């Protein structure tokens, strides 16, 4: 609006032809300043809240003290990383992260696929809709509530699990203090919370399968079980592969919020993951530099995994629903 | 395509087995909620004896009476509403104009800006630098800090940008003829056409704000600023090993567990109220997000 009143458009075009690149660029900004004004707050936000912390990551290579600040603290090279890899509890946290992710993958990955295949077999529309509405719900519940429910249900006195064990004549177990029970409870909770919601992607893929494939299978006398194995599963295989690759890319991302809420010193042995370790060392014990180094290690491994996963999934995605 | 009358005997059997299995999984999903509700309505004594399995035992409202009488519960409830509404509005104020700008082909450095934003999905500085940055910005123990620092994420911007990019040029041309500028085009053309996408993002924001816990716990110290999730966490952590509470509860008819359960019920109810509205959108939403990065 402003630029249009200053000079008629035709004159400006003639001028732009004559002048150099700088003037043309200025002209562009004068004409299009509004989109840059719209973008600016978002860019500033990213710089202040996400990129500035990346600059602050240098404390992983420094002897950081609050008083000297990020820039003023002296460089010490890789000392923190040497400390980390000599630290048994950190090595244990790395191992636990990978192990828990592996169990999540082994049990948690097939669950939504199986669920989607089963939903696909249900004829009664209302029954299907109701069941879907219910199984999607836990995804929207906060981890504090999930943990509250788990703590109550598995409690040795109040908990319904131990009540049922009592009916079966078994002794009650204090589940949340026993290292060997942490992973089954954690992975099981994850399946309970996310399997339903995770099935949406696979249901969408199933909905995209060409119906004529099923029609000709019916003509050939195939039953539903055969159709599932011969048509549905092969058709959604690209989606399954992509989701699998994404999952593998996120191996370092154990939902540590839930770990913090469910673990205790007695179960650190099997429960402590890299991010909970970082939380304790950094935010609770104040060893910011060492904890930042551990976080950097985690972020770099995660970055490499995610980039590899992205490259792989792009290769597969040509044949998939995306 | 699916027609029960055309099913063979084997197909019918298979369909019934699958329906029963789905029914069981659905019941297993629902049960923990029913169980917690039952505990919240039971007497403290019955709950501690492990008697609650399905219906409430010695039904009482005393656990609810206890939390309703606790001003800290109400303050945290109010705070959660402030974080949810304030945070969601803040998110939209950044995301909608930002996504619009990124969707414009004439934006110079568009590839760079897209990568600049997408990069943060793949690489994150981590907890410690983020925390120290918040301290340097003087945003510790600040409600505004929580609202601002979690306003934007790359995923939501990219989701909306993809949606904006898919809107045909012809829709805005009429407005351009009338001399509309970018702000007017965004407001009068793009926003009305993108209602489903904006609704999806709004709902993602609402849910994540309502459930937000970790950073609220780390960044907020004042009790009058904490949201419901942090209050619930404090309650679970302190009630169970508070001896004074153990004495009070015997004659009061509630226990640490029934009070915890009652707070859980109170914080789930708003989610259940909003849930039917969310459901319409989230199925589309997660598929939109997967289109391209």
Please summarize what this structure is.
Chain A is an all-alpha fold. Chain A has helices at 2-6, 9-18, 21-56, 69-72, 79-85, 88-108, 110-120, 125-136, 143-153, 160-167, 179-207, 211-219, 224-249, 256-262, 268-271, 274-284, 288-317. Chain A has two domains: 2-68, no CATH class; 79-140 and 194-317, MetI-like (MetI-like fold, Orthogonal Bundle), CATH 1.10.3720.
Throw out a few tags for this protein:
heterodimer; A: 322 residues; mainly alpha; MetI-like fold; 2 domains; 17 helices; 75% helix; 0% strand; flat; B: 293 residues; 15 helices
Write down the secondary-structure element order of chain A: HHHHHHHHHHHHHHHHH
Report the count of strand segments of chain A.
0
Helix percent of chain B reads over 70%
Write the CATH architecture name of one domain in chain B: Orthogonal Bundle
CATH superfamily of one domain in chain B: MetI-like
The main β sheet of chain A shows up as: none
Number of helices of chain A: 17
Main interface: chain pair and counts: A-B, 97 and 104 residues
Overall 3D shape of chain A: flat
Q: Please tell me what the overall shape of chain B is.
A: globular
Task: Note down, in words, how this protein is organized.
The complex is a heterodimer of chains A (322) and B (293). Chain A is mostly helical. Chain A has 2 domains: 67 residues, no CATH class; 186 residues, Orthogonal Bundle (MetI-like fold). Chain A is built from 17 helices and no strands. The longest helix of chain A has 36 residues. Chain A is flat. The N terminus of chain A is likely disordered. By secondary structure, chain B is mainly α. Chain B has a domain of 145 residues: MetI-like (MetI-like fold), CATH 1.10.3720. Chain B contains 15 helices and no strands. In chain B, helix 4 packs parallel to helix 7 and helix 13 runs antiparallel to helix 15. The radius of gyration of chain B is 25 Å and the shape is globular. The mean pLDDT of chain B is 87. Classes of the chains: A mainly alpha (322), B mainly alpha (293). Chains A and B meet through helix 3, helix 7, helix 8, helix 9 and helix 10 of A and helix 1, helix 4, helix 5, helix 6 and helix 10 of B.
